[in-house]
């Protein structure tokens, strides 16, 4: 990405220009194009090009500088549109490829090795020899959610304090910016060993605030924050490493707001000096920026007045003349101003209705998709109008097969409807525009003020509790799967907040989910979790879940077998930080919160040979053998083996299911794929399933076999947090061979 840059590169270039011993291209040519073996002390690059022989322009190499005049020497053909060039005795070099006068982005390799570049992506091996990292139906995943900086420290050399770490009393041994991309790559096998297929990572863009370790205070949407990176590890490396292990990347993205220090395109005020990160002194005012003009004495102002000066740049009509931000000064919950006002002092509301802003955001984040990101989690979606998203944002990603977006429509209310009626409710954000005038493509205009007026009118029009659409996409027709009708879907989903809010126990969450499913366009796509980096369930919303391992096991049973995509917050497998306050800002050490550093639990070695299959030693082996880790591993394996549990519709109709606990039938049929999967699920108690297809049923939990001859299958009483998943293995059905995974303390 053109703007993925580091201040370090500028410093190095200045130093090298002043140095002696520059080697010209004529002197270097002879040895650089020589054949090299797999092991060499230089950098060898391969470039895929279908438009003729490229040249390579390079500069700023280390330890000795090598440079060439533009456009550089021709690369050597390897056949099949691949071209190569070798730099011997080089450990770092900048380069770009030139083809028929067209330049690639400026690129850098920072360690010796062999690299392939194709489709604006670096690979560590020939991409033609790799399995294609194709995105799959989002519902086939289970998600492990991490705060990258608090997960695992793979490079202590990039550890750094936030400038508010002193207030928080975060010690040098635990700076806020601790975990990194290198650590994530190192522990991808840990995530796979638990059986998960996808990892959700917090925002990766450059951030700016006194406590920005979480990533939600953007300074430059188009730049990866260098604090995540190492000399040999970039975000692209994370994507590639995950895909090589068969894992998907869910990137957390923020379109609602930026930091209050501006944003590189929307309100450029500052750049960062990365040698001074532990102090606000790292910020360098951009010469001739609007801030320097309206507040020439900015450096001498008290912090509160500096804050107001920055807001003036971003929110005052006289200054933000492009209207890249919303200028609303108030925010009312359950009112249209919750989509135009500023939700927090460090989250300045972007004017998402401005077509220039919409293009900037969608173009920028489309580049991350083109890098290989599999899915987006959209932060603070409730604070962006649905019509705005449907008209100007979501369509920009609709051409990418199986790419998926799920949003955070924060609704801490019991029941399907949020405080603003339909307008800010979870289910509402899964529908396309169906009513006039909002359904017309022409309703989105080149005028931000017209769009803002339409957006506000849209909110008010649906601020009621009688939503005019219903869906049966999540429900079986009797006990038969039917093709869902997605003609009214906007092609996205949400986190199921009403279910999350009800997760004081599994049965309450089950009841909440059932009561709302006809309002979602298709609730089989929603993401379900118990707690997160923001909230726990009702009555424990400020702390990490602490109702005990048995309650956790029962919750997990429901999430992994009922409709939706299960998501687990990092460390849950050992009840990490249970009962801790999740987030108090810089008012307590992170070690005392629900965002504590988890890396100590993963010390040692782990190698995953498949999902849920691994070898491990050290502390990580102990962590993977914890009761809830064992439980999660079996649940993941069961879910992956039974398509009905991933993509199936369900019924709890008394004609087919009777139980005083949690029980349901799920089924998924896809004749083109030869799949007909049916499962009968009973959690924490007995159940009777009726009017079933006759034939053999195998319990995925224990391997028990029942031969159904009269359409009835009976599950005897089982204890709390235990479960039975009887899979139909009759002729014509997609069955299983026996028990899946290993029983632990709860599944038995």
Structure in words:
This protein has 748 residues and is of the alpha+beta class. Helices cover 21% and strands 21% of the residues. It is built from 17 helices and 34 strands. A hairpin with a 2-residue loop joins strand 3 (76-79) and strand 4. Helix 14 (549-561) packs parallel to helix 16. The two termini are 50 Å apart.
In short:
The protein has about 750 residues and is of the alpha+beta class.
Strand order of the largest sheet: 21-20-19-14-11-10-23-22
Average per-residue pLDDT, rounded, comes to 93
Q: Count every beta strand, where a strand is a DSSP E run of 2 or more residues.
A: 34
Ranges where pLDDT stays below 50 over 5 or more residues in a row are 1-39
- Computed over alpha carbons, the radius of gyration is 27 Å
Specify the biggest β-sheet: 8 strands, parallel
Structural class: alpha+beta
Which word captures the global form? Answer: globular
What is the distance, rounded to the nearest whole angstrom, between the alpha carbons of the first and last residues? 50 Å
Structure annotation, total helices: 17
Oligomer: single chain
Helix content: 10-25%
Strand content: 15-25%
Features:
alpha+beta; 8-stranded parallel β-sheet; globular
Q: What's the helix and strand layout?
A:
Layout: H1 7-17, H2 25-32, E1 43-48, E2 55-62, E3 76-79, E4 82-87, E5 92-99, E6 102-103, E7 107-109, E8 113-118, E9 121-123, E10 143-146, H3 165-168, H4 181-186, H5 188-193, E11 198-201, E12 205-207, E13 218-224, H6 235-244, E14 248-254, E15 257-258, E16 270-272, E17 283-285, H7 290-294, H8 303-315, E18 348-349, H9 355-371, E19 375-379, H10 386-392, E20 404-407, H11 448-461, E21 493-494, H12 497-501, H13 506-516, E22 527-528, H14 549-561, E23 565-569, E24 605-610, E25 613-617, H15 619-624, H16 627-641, H17 643-647, E26 649-651, E27 657-658, E28 662-670, E29 675-683, E30 687-689, E31 695-699, E32 705-708, E33 713-715, E34 723-728
Parallel strand pairs: 1-8, 10-11, 10-23, 11-14, 14-19, 19-20, 20-21, 22-23
Antiparallel strand pairs: 1-4, 2-5, 3-4, 5-6, 5-7, 8-9, 12-13, 15-18, 16-17, 24-25, 26-28, 27-30, 28-29, 29-34, 30-33, 31-32, 31-34
Helix pairs in contact: 14-16
């Amino acid at each position: 990405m053109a703007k993925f840059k580091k201040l370090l590169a500028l410093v190095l270039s200045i130093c090298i220009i002043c140095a002696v011993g520059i080697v010209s291209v004529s002197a270097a040519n002879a040895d650089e194009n020589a054949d090299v073996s797999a092991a060499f002390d230089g950098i060898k690059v391969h470039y895929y090009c279908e438009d003729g022989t490229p040249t390579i322009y390079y500069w700023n190499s280390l330890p000795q500088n090598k440079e060439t005049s533009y456009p550089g020497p021709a690369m050597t053909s390897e056949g099949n549109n691949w071209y190569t060039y070798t730099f011997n005795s080089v450990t770092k070099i900048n380069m770009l490829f030139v083809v028929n006068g067209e330049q690639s982005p400026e690129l850098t390799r920072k360690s010796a090795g062999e690299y392939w570049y194709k489709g604006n992506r670096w690979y560590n091996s020939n991409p033609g020899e790799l399995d294609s990292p194709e995105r799959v139906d989002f519902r086939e995943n289970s998600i492990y959610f991490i705060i990258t900086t608090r997960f695992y420290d793979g490079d202590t050399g990039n550890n750094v304090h936030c400038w508010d770490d002193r207030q928080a009393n975060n010690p040098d041994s635990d700076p806020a910016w601790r975990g990194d991309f290198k650590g994530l790559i190192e522990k991808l096998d840990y995530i796979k060993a638990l059986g998960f297929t996808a990892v959700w990572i917090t925002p990766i863009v450059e951030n700016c605030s006194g406590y920005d370790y979480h990533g939600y205070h953007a300074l430059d949407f188009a730049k990866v924050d260098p604090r995540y990176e190492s000399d040999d590890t970039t975000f692209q490396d994370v994507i590639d490493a995950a895909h090589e292990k068969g894992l998907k990347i869910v990137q957390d993205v923020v379109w609602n707001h930026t930091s209050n220090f501006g944003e590189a395109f929307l309100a450029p005020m500052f750049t960062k000096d990365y040698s001074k990160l532990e102090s606000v002194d790292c910020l360098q005012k951009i010469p001739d920026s609007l801030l320097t003009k309206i507040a020439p004495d900015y450096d001498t102002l008290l912090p509160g007045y500096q804050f107001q000066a920055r807001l003036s740049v971003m929110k005052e009509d006289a200054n933000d003349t492009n209207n890249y931000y919303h200028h609303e000064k108030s925010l009312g919950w359950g009112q249209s101003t919750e989509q135009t006002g500023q939700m927090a002092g460090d989250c300045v509301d972007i004017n998402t209705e401005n077509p220039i802003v919409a293009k900037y955001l969608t173009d920028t984040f489309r580049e991350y998709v083109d890098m290989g990101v599999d899915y987006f989690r959209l932060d603070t979606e409730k604070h962006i109008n649905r019509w705005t998203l449907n008209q100007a944002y979501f369509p920009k990603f609709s051409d990418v097969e199986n790419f998926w977006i799920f949003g955070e429509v924060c609704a801490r209310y019991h029941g399907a409807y949020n405080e603003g009626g339909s307008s800010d409710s979870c289910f509402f954000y899964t529908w396309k525009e169906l009513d006039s005038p909002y359904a017309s493509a022409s309703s989105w205009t080149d005028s931000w003020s017209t769009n803002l007026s339409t957006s506000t009118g849209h909110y008010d029009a649906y601020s009621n509790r009688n939503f005019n659409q219903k869906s049966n996409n999540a429900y079986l027709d009797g006990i038969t799967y039917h093709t869902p009708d997605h003609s009214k879907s906007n092609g996205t989903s949400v986190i199921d907040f009403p279910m999350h809010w009800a997760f004081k126990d599994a049965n309450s969450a089950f009841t909440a989910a059932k009561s709302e499913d006809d309002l979602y366009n298709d609730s089989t796509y929603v993401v379900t979790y118990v707690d997160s980096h923001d909230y726990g369930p009702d009555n424990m919303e400020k702390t990490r879940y602490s109702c005990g391992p048995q309650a956790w096991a029962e919750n997990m049973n429901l999430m992994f077998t009922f409709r939706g995509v299960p998501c687990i917050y990092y460390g849950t497998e050992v009840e990490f930080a249970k009962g801790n306050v999740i987030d108090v800002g810089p008012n307590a050490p992170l070690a005392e919160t629900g965002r504590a550093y988890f890396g100590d639990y993963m010390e040692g070695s782990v190698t995953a040979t498949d999902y849920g299959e691994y070898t491990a030693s050290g502390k990580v082996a102990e962590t993977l053998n914890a009761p809830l880790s064992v439980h999660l591993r079996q649940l993941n394996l069961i879910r992956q083996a039974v398509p009905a549990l991933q993509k199936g519709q369900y019924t709890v109709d008394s004609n087919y299911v009777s139980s005083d606990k949690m029980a349901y039938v799920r089924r998924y049929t896809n004749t083109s794929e030869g799949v007909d999967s049916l499962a009968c699920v009973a959690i924490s108690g007995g159940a009777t399933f009726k009017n079933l297809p006759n034939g053999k049923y195998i319990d995925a939990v224990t391997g028990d076999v029942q031969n159904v001859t009269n359409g009835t299958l009976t599950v005897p009483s089982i204890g709390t947090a235990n479960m039975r998943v009887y899979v139909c293995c009759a002729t014509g059905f997609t069955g299983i061979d026996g028990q899946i995974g290993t029983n632990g303390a709860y599944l038995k």
